[in-house]
Each structure stands twice: as structure tokens, then as C-alpha cells.
């Protein structure tokens, strides 16, 4: 819910200053509410609130998106706990639940646009996944040519179409992020790392090969694409994720998630039907 908070500007005084949140009613001092200063942001917030309520109305179909009273763990610390090494079946279960949550969001015309390990919570008792932080989420219409900002998604998990400046993109950006999370769960470290956008783009090229218009026909028209980009050959996926070297279905799913052309990238619905999840229980 969006609500406006009381706003007062204290006069300059030599007396001790009051607590900066003293004017905010107690129930809201520790909440995540904030003031929306423009009408545009108000309309945007109302649209997202309506969409979120519509999603929660069908929460029984998507437990990955619903609140829970049980203790939760961030997925990132779990990956680095030596006392809790994730098993292959555990990894499959977590990826499956992430995809179920994203499928539900996409079915309700919502792109998350900031999927990363820090926004995936795991229940301590039953390993139930919760997807959090819809602050960058946006409503979308299928097949609608609507421009969005490409300045979304934390850098390591940002899809190549965003890095190359595509103003029009689809919910496929979330599936690229899922692929990055899946690879990180297997490797215990991000698959693509850099401090800059161009640096990350080259790290992707070094591992997946430099794309061309044969594999991605819209590539030449992207704002940040250049014919002068270095040409790298693609490395075998089993070299990028050695722990999946003997897991052909896992390598296939990861390859489909990390596909350059967003129109050819696997969807959440298709991914949930992938053979890698056969026999996996939640």
C-alpha cells in the first residue's frame, strides 16, 4: 500500500534536534513506506499495488510469492555455508520454485526486473522459496512495443539486451537472471562478474561467444552494439559450470536460459516442463 506520511520542516534552533523520524507516527517509523512526490509515481504505484493484489489473490498457485511467518535465509549466504553444501536435488528444487514464482508473475503481466540471489529467500524449515523486492517490477502487455529503461537488474544478473541499450524488452530479462542464479548456485560464485557494463558485456562474450546477427537478428540495431567488439569463440557450457559436466539436462536448461536472443530464450512455463526437473519434489 502507498500512503503519504506527515511532513513537517523543523525551524532552525539552538535547542537539541529531535529524532529525524519523530514526526512520523510510531507504527510507520520502521516500515517500508515512503512519500510519492509526483502524480506519475502515484499512478505507477497504484498499478503495481493492483497487480500485486491480483497476484496474491491467486497465492495458492504460487507459494514462491506469498508471505510466510517461518524463518527465512537469503540464498546468497546459504551458497557459502561450508556446513550446508547444497546437493544437486536441493539446487533443482530451489530453481524450480524460483521459476514457478516467475511464471506466476509473468502470467499476471509483471516483470520482476531485479532477480538476484539477495532477492531470493529460503525457508529454514522446509526450504520453501520466496521471491522478494518488487521495487523495480513493471506491468507489461504481451507483444506490446513499450519502451522501458534499461537501467534495471543488478549488474551481474543483467541480460545482454539491457547491457546493449534495448529500450524495448520483454519478461525474458527475468529468465536470463534465473540462469545466472542457477549457475551461481552450482559454481558458488557469479558466472559473469565485472564492475562496469562494458566489462560485464565482454565477460559474457568471453564465455558464451560474441553474438552476431545470425544468432540474434536484432543485434545490429541495438544502441550500444558495435562492429568493433572483440570476437570471442563460445566456450563449452560444461567448462563454465564443471559441476554440471555429467548432467546433460542441466546443461541444456542453462544454455536455454542464457540464450542471447530474448525471443529464443526459454520461457518460465517452458522451463518448468524441462526434463531437468523430472522427479523433483518441493
From TrEMBL:
Catalytic activity: L-threonyl-[protein] + ATP = O-phospho-L-threonyl-[protein] + ADP + H(+); L-seryl-[protein] + ATP = O-phospho-L-seryl-[protein] + ADP + H(+)
Pfam family, one: Pkinase
Protein name per the record: cyclin-dependent kinase
EC annotation from Swiss-Prot or TrEMBL: 2.7.11.22
One GO term of the biological process aspect: regulation of meiotic cell cycle
Similarity remark: Belongs to the protein kinase superfamily. CMGC Ser/Thr protein kinase family. CDC2/CDKX subfamily.
GO cellular component, one term: nucleus
InterPro entries in the record: CDK, Kinase-like_dom_sf, Prot_kinase_dom, Ser/Thr_kinase_AS
First-tier enzyme category under EC: transferase
The keyword Kinase is annotated on this UniProt entry: yes
Keywords annotated in UniProt: ATP-binding, Kinase, Nucleotide-binding, Phosphoprotein, Serine/threonine-protein kinase, Transferase
Domain Protein kinase: 1-277
SMART domains in alphabetical order: S_TKc
Amino acid at each position: 500500500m502507498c500512503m503519504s506520511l506527515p511532513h513537517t520542516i523543523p525551524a532552525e534552533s539552538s535547542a537539541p534536534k529531535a529524532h529525524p523520524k519523530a514526526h512520523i507516527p510510531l507504527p510507520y517509523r520502521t516500515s517500508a513506506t515512503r512519500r510519492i512526490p509526483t502524480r506519475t509515481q502515484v499512478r505507477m504505484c497504484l498499478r503495481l499495488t493492483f497487480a500485486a493484489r491480483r497476484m496474491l489473490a491467486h497465492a495458492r498457485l504460487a507459494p514462491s510469492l506469498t508471505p510466510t511467518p517461518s524463518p527465512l535465509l537469503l540464498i546468497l549466504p546459504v551458497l557459502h555455508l561450508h556446513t550446508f553444501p547444497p546437493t544437486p536435488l536441493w539446487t533443482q528444487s530451489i530453481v524450480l520454485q524460483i521459476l514457478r514464482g516467475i511464471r506466476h508473475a509473468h502470467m499476471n503481466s509483471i516483470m520482476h526486473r531485479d532477480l538476484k540471489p539477495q532477492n531470493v529467500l529460503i525457508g529454514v524449515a522446509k526450504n520453501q522459496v520466496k521471491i522478494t523486492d518488487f521495487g523495480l517490477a513493471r506491468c507489461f502487455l504481451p507483444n506490446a512495443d513499450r519502451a522501458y529503461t534499461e537501467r534495471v537488474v543488478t549488474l551481474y544478473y543483467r541480460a545482454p539486451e539491457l547491457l546493449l541499450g534495448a529500450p524495448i524488452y520483454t519478461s525474458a530479462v527475468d529468465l536470463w537472471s534465473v540462469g545466472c542464479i542457477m549457475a551461481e548456485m552450482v559454481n558458488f560464485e557469479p558466472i559473469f562478474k565485472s564492475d562496469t557494463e562494458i566489462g560485464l558485456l565482454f565477460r559474457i562474450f568471453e564465455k558464451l561467444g560474441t553474438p552476431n546477427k545470425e544468432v540474434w537478428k536484432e543485434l545490429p540495431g541495438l544502441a550500444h552494439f558495435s562492429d568493433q567488439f572483440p570476437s570471442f569463440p563460445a566456450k563449452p557450457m560444461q567448462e563454465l559450470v564443471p559441476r554440471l559436466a555429467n548432467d546433460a539436462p542441466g546443461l541444456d536448461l542453462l544454455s536455454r536460459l542464457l540464450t542471447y536472443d530474448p525471443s529464443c530464450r526459454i520461457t518460465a512455463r517452458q522451463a518448468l516442463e524441462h526434463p531437468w526437473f523430472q522427479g523433483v519434489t518441493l
